[in-house]
């Protein structure tokens, strides 16, 4: 596993005070895991990664000249956007697909995946946010990028994109307003999921320390090719730049989580 990295950091201007995250950017597995007993076609599906997000994140980081952290492993191995105590951290079944390599799983293997993959990714996120704060002299704005399927269990999802959040509205309100200013877009607010999830990436790195943030989900059929990724990067880059220019989004302010009190 010496040649396998659990993350990739896209270097940018840390003075800019903004960081992008992509928890489910890639569908890779480390050597020795094969395909976890799945058919190889499973790794082209959303169960393995967020389709289109790696390309979109790379484009935005380059256009804005800001750092980004991309997770380097498939969520089928271990989900970086789940807390270490979350029962869905290592999935046994995902969207109807049984994952033989995850069930049964020994406690030692569970801990190995945390130590070798999950924790190094989150350490990279921590280090990138701290570096951005140190070099810019202000609390950075963080945006996490994800994608969702056009339909779920036969039910169409009409949103072109959606903003997920817990209770810190600072980055959410301007992001929603600017996206909704386009009459051709149908933008969801905490759709098709609720953004309050204890110990997930935003909870851990932004809610608890009081960093302004937003999680943006784009429907994957809209960014499934280069043309779509280019289009959404061109749309989002000026929006993110305008948000980043707002001093209010660089203040440290802790909001209570809808999931309950923070651990002492």
TrEMBL record:
The keyword Repeat does not apply. InterPro entries: N-FG_amidohydro, UCP029730. Keywords: Hydrolase. SUPFAM superfamilies: Zn-dependent exopeptidases. It holds the Pfam family FGase. This is N-formylglutamate amidohydrolase. One of its GO terms (molecular function) is hydrolase activity.
